[in-house]
Amino acid sequence: MEERLNRVKQQLQQSSYKLTPQREATVRVLIENEKDHLSAEDVYLKVKDKAPEIGLATVYRTLELLAELKVVDKINFGDGVARFDLRKEGAKHFHHHLVCMECGRVDEIDEDLFARS
């Protein structure tokens, strides 16, 4: 986890941002829950357990910044809720998902379809 956190810190520094304690707490939650597709509210509830002083607006701003810097992908599965997916190391673009319309289960497509062209 620390190695991944350091890479995010470097990405922030390359764009003249700091890894503040609030940003670090948010990134740690994303790393710990990497297999899940958390909404901002989900992230906030998990961050709040560890750092109760962090507000929902701070989590929203942090997630938007991380999306802008391409640390996370902001995705919508058609239910109107934005979710955040930590970008895989070395990923050059967004990866795709299959969403079951019956139960809502989400499967990630790990194969790089763009590499085939």
Automatic annotation (TrEMBL):
Gene Ontology biological-process annotations: negative regulation of DNA-templated transcription; regulation of secondary metabolite biosynthetic process
Cofactor(s) it depends on: Zn(2+)
Gene: fur
GO terms, molecular function: DNA-binding transcription factor activity; transcription cis-regulatory region binding; zinc ion binding
Pfam families referenced in this protein's UniProt entry, alphabetically: FUR
Matching InterPro entries: FUR, Fur_C, WH-like_DNA-bd_sf, WH_DNA-bd_sf
Binding site for Zn(2+): 100, 103
Protein family according to the UniProt entry: Belongs to the Fur family.
Source organism per UniProt: Staphylococcus aureus
UniProt remark on cofactor binding: Binds 1 zinc ion per subunit.
Protein name: Ferric uptake regulation protein FUR
